[in-house]
Amino acid sequence: KVTVPKPREQRIITIANQKGGVGKTTTTVNLAAALAHQGMTVLVVDLDPQGNASTALGVAHHSGVPSSYELLIGEVAVKDAIQTSQHSERLLCVPATIDLAGAEIELVSMVAREGRLKTAIHEAALAGYDIDYVLIDCPPSLGLLTVNALVAAKEVLIPIQCEYYALEGVGQLLRNIGLVQAHLNPELHVSTVLLTMYDGRTKLADQVAEEVRNHFGDVVLKSMIPRSVKVSEAPGYGMTVLDYDPGSRGAMSYMDAGRELAGRAQLKQDAS
Ligand code: ADP
Ligand code: MG
């Protein structure tokens, strides 16, 4: 079994891109599963009212289940909202229910509305779980839910689809990250960019990959996620691709990405 080094301190990573369908949710659950396979304990926080990450992890998320919604409005403690995924006891999830759909508006009038997730998942609240990674899956918008995710994290991972207009909207995302960093969370930075839905048979995919690498430099992971039917089928069975078809290219590419993500923190730690 391949294992990766544990981070010296818990890493909280927000997976954000206000474009829909770029692979945020797919990346959140499969990267989480990869890190869990590699020996890490990982908590996924589902912040998208659609609850697709919760579905893929096979956790209950019907209306009324303690979820990220109750967490944000301060009705439950994180410990009471955490479920264990069906496929690994090291893979935990705070699900999203449809109740979250109204939160964007409800939050507007709340005290400390941008910092509510951070407060809910602070270290003491998670004491006893020994969580190495927290991955937060964002909805496709830059509203208060995404702002809460950006305030709660130190790192942002941006998935970019190898398609036309790949970088469209990324400038706006980076400006918002800059605003959050300047006013709410000085430690926030884009630590990782992951190229998704890469199709090596097309020239376009290579052009996009090159453009993204020129734009972002070495925060772009070397591992790219191929476009693969297995990846898109897995959630229909309440599974990540690592459980659905561990030998598939999609599964292996997420394992590679997980290893790379973990190894990079190690490099940084050793250098400091
Ligand atoms: P987002 O969360 O950014 O909206 P998703 O992760 O839900 O995006 O992905 C959008 C769609 O693309 C989903 O149907 C998903 O199954 C599919 N998809 C994501 N990654 C891949 C991939 N590598 N290969 C094939 N289909 C993928
Ligand atoms: Mg999604």
TrEMBL record:
Report which part of the complete sequence is shown.
60 to 331 of 331
Would you say which domain of life the source belongs to? Bacteria
Q: What does this protein do?
A: May play a role in septum formation.
Domain AAA, first and last residues per copy: 11-189
Q: Which family does it belong to?
A: Belongs to the ParA family.
> Where does the sequence pass through the membrane?
none
Q: Which residues form the signal peptide?
A: none
Q: Which classification does the entry list for the species? A: Bacteria, Bacillati, Actinomycetota, Actinomycetes, Mycobacteriales
Q: What is this protein called?
A: Chromosome partitioning protein
